[in-house]
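The protein record now logged underneath.
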Amino acid sequence: MNKSIKLTASLLVAAILPSTAHAINVTTSTDANTLANNILGSGISISNVSLIGANTQQGTFTGGLADGIGIDAGIILTSGNANSADTGGAGNITDNTTSFTGTGSNTALTNLSGFSTNDQNVLKFDFTSNGGDVFFNYVFASEEYNEFVGSQFNDVFAFFLDGVNIALIPGTSTAVTINNVNNSSNSSFYNDNDPSNGIPTPYSIEYDGFTDVFTAQFLGLSAGTHTIELAIADAGDSSLDSAVFIQAGSFSDTKIPEPSSIALFGLGLLGLSFIRRRRI
């Protein structure tokens, strides 16, 4: 979605919803099945669910559209504390949120990024797809923006489907990373929320920058069971947190529409209804 349209949609959502809905609400969880079932959609069956993560490192969330991230509800995986995403509607006023989880490094993410990793968070499960395809929607966000773009502190995440990363910049085979999506690289997909640019920040979410809503997908899966690892970690050190938000119910064998587009359509209908009531 166009950035200006997306920002307008989030502002409209914030204006219409009650004030208590003006912030993302995170509920941390260490229950791997709760997390996996939250994102489970149609045509998919899952089994053998496991989690690597500290007590407050991951959870479920609601209220994402009001905070501008383009996904209203789902799960959050982080390299720190998932509760940090919630600013209470105050906007992003902290430029260096950091939590140390002690969950160690992740070899696959280290190999993908080319840098040492720490504070790993991994949700893993087996699945079968009725239709032979798999899709799910997500947003990547980080406190490493914008100061550490182009550096070794390139916090990394990936969605390893049978060992192959499918978290890619749309239309490319390039992994979604801080160094690959930012103000100067693939900037059309990037949303700048850095408080060093001025307060208040345009979005209420804590992270200094985040991607548009992307869809991870793989078409034409072979018959049988497949394995997905949803993984994120700090890179280069353990400082400054990153997160990936995955849309509830979107892990499906059919593509789920971008939620912010649905919200904008709904707001249009709500606006028409309001106008009609005013005319009466």
In short: Residues 3-279 form one domain. The chain has a mean pLDDT of 83. The chain has one domain: 3-279. Residues 259-279 form the longest helix (21 residues).
